[in-house]
């Protein structure tokens, strides 16, 4: 008997680093709900974002294409409505598609294939965050990440981010009820894709008291290597520090510890939401036909190498959790070492749903990666993962190639960087000029140079920045019309036929 097409729930947190989860070995983490999904599902130990910045990472993830291929270079680059996303592709084959929460879409299309969007975004959709590579990093723009988030970290009774995520959590649970209601009323099952996207643990690090207090007796480790790299070897890290103000204000150890505790508490807050979502799925009898995926758009440096937030090719910034949980006939169980990336989410959803796969897609189904690893058809060194960084904090394109345990970073004007993670997992020694690595460094450089015309890419980014700055300035004059999503009023309670409305709203509990 053929299986029904599964429901799919994608839970995404913002800036949730893989290394801050118990499922990825962190002994200080308090993430029992995410860890349970990992224990029962598939865990990809080396998953990377394709750019360590919010908006371009998410646009890339949704289209299965690199940021440079779709012109989504930074947090102020508009995401074209004509780009097919996984929401378009699943909707085209009959899935109900819904977005709840954050996706940082820039531009007038705030749906990108989702049939329903149940909340607005926490950040604006306009061209407000356009970088300028003609400015020095220390010549700061108003919207840059700021060191103050580390100095002011701690408990808050209420914040913009808490209000947003509490709404996202509530609407997620209610939407699950609604999918059951709709199917009951129609007398037939329609599969759904639901993307639930939270803003925590993104800075500022301001968790609720409940979650902060859970770490009162937890020994959260300090940064293992807080020393800033040599500026001659790694000017990019120093640009990032200058951009955020860490070059003039350095947090002391107490401030570092407070910020890290607040971050871990914010991750724990997300874990609670994950637990409530899974509980509701089980209560509604959906567990046997639902796949749950947990991931993030990028990580957080959390003080390693004197860096905070993201925007860096280092592991803490560029690695993300990737956990897939579902029925055993759909999801291979276990841990997988082969490298994967956020581009792989779309082909995974297409395989699960049975939607047609586009030709020439950059990603690869996570399920296929797991199968190939199990059979020995593929090993970590057999696949290259590319990470682009084309936004603020650099002055020219930065391109990173990950091949197995090797990582190569190319940025015109900066020294090449090359790390062998098998002997240097903390990326402390740049081996780009070490003779024994010369051949592989040359091969990886050639791979990037064959894939990219770096000078052309730089020219394209600069031209895009200039045109978007002009448009943004013009749109601020005269009557201003924002692109932010404005949810439609819901007619959800008793209107018209009294008893029919009450009957539609009821999801019975057969155990009573």
| Span of the ends, CA to CA | 32 Å
Structural class: alpha/beta
Write the CATH homologous superfamily.
Answer: Alkaline Phosphatase, subunit A
The first-level CATH class is given as Alpha Beta
Regions with pLDDT < 50 over 5+ consecutive residues? Answer: none
Major sheet: 8 strands, mixed
Q: Radius of gyration, Cα only, in angstroms?
A: 23 Å
The geometry reads as globular
CATH architecture: 3-Layer(aba) Sandwich
Number of domains: 1
The CATH topology: Alkaline Phosphatase, subunit A
| Average of per-residue pLDDT values | 95
Provide a count of the helices: 15
Can you count the beta strands? 15
Helix content: 25-40%
Sheet-strand content, in percent, reads 5-15%
- How are helices and strands ordered from N to C? EHEEHHHEEHHEHHHEHEEEEHHEEEEHHH
Strand line-up across the major sheet: 5-4-6-1-7-9-2-10
Q: What would your notes on this structure say?
A:
β14 and β15 (417-420) form a beta hairpin. An eight-stranded mixed beta sheet has the order 5-4-6-1-7-9-2-10, sandwiched between helices. It has a four-stranded antiparallel beta sheet with strand order 12-13-14-15, with helices on one face. The chain is built from 15 helices and 15 strands. It is 34% helix and 14% strand. The two termini are 32 Å apart. The chain has 512 residues and is an alpha/beta fold.
Topology overview:
Blueprint: E1 7-14, H1 32-40, E2 42-44, E3 47-48, H2 54-63, H3 67-70, H4 86-92, E4 96-101, E5 116-117, H5 148-151, H6 160-186, E6 192-201, H7 209-213, H8 235-244, H9 253-283, E7 290-296, H10 315-318, E8 319-320, E9 322-325, E10 334-336, E11 340-341, H11 345-353, H12 366-375, E12 384-389, E13 398-403, E14 406-410, E15 417-420, H13 438-451, H14 454-475, H15 498-505
Parallel strand pairs: 1-6, 1-7, 2-10, 3-11, 4-5, 4-6
Antiparallel strand pairs: 2-9, 3-8, 7-9, 12-13, 13-14, 14-15
Helix pairs in contact: 6-9
């Amino acid at each position: 008997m053929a299986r029904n097409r599964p429901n799919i729930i994608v839970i995404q947190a913002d800036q949730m680093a893989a290394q801050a989860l118990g499922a990825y070995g962190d002994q200080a983490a308090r993430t029992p709900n995410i860890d349970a999904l990992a224990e029962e599902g598939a865990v990809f130990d080396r998953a990377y974002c394709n750019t360590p910045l919010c908006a371009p990472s998410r646009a890339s993830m949704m289209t299965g294409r690199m940021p440079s291929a779709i012109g989504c270079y930074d947090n102020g680059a508009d995401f074209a409505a004509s780009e097919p996303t996984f929401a378009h592709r699943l909707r085209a084959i009959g899935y109900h598609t819904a977005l709840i929460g954050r996706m940082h879409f820039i531009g007038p299309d705030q749906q990108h294939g989702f049939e329903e969007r149940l909340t607005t975004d926490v950040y604006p959709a306009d061209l407000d965050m356009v970088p300028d590579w003609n400015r020095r990093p220390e010549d700061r723009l108003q919207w840059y990440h700021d060191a103050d988030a580390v100095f002011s970290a701690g408990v808050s009774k209420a914040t913009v981010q808490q209000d947003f995520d509490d709404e996202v959590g509530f609407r997620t649970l209610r939407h699950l009820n609604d999918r059951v209601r709709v199917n009951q009323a129609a007398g037939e099952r329609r599969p759904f894709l639901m993307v639930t996207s939270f803003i925590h643990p993104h800075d500022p690090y301001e968790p609720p008291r409940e979650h902060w207090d859970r770490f009162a007796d937890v020994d959260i480790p300090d940064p293992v290597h807080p020393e800033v790299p040599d500026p001659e070897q790694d000017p990019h890290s120093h640009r990032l520090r200058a951009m955020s103000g860490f070059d003039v204000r350095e947090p002391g150890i107490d401030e570092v510890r407070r910020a890290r505790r607040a971050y871990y508490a914010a991750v724990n807050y997300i874990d609670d939401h994950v637990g409530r979502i899974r509980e509701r799925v089980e209560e509604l009898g959906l567990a046997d036909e639902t796949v749950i995926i947990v991931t993030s758009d990028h990580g957080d440096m959390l003080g390693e190498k004197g860096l905070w937030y993201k925007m860096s090719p280092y592991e803490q910034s560029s690695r993300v959790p990737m956990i897939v949980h579902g029925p055993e006939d759909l999801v291979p169980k276990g841990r997988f070492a082969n490298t994967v990336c956020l581009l792989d989410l779309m082909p995974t959803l297409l395989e699960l749903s049975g939607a047609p796969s586009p030709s020439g897609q950059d990603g690869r189904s996570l399920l296929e990666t797991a199968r190939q690893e199990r059979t020995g058809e593929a090993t970590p060194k057999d696949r290259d993962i590319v990470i682009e960084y084309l936004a603020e904090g650099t002055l020219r394109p930065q391109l990173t190639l990950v091949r197995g345990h090797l990582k190569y970073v190319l940025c015109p004007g900066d020294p090449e960087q090359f790390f062998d993670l098998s002997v240097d997992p903390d990326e402390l020694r740049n081996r780009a000029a070490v003779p024994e690595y010369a051949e592989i460094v040359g091969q990886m450089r050639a791979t990037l140079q064959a894939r990219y015309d770096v000078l052309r890419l730089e020219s394209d980014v600069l031209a895009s920045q200039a045109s978007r700055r002009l448009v943004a300035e013009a749109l601020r004059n005269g009557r201003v019309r924002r692109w932010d999503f404005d949810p439609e009023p819901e007619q959800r309670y008793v209107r018209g036929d009294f008893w029919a409305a009450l009957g539609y709203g009821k999801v019975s509990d057969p155990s009573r």
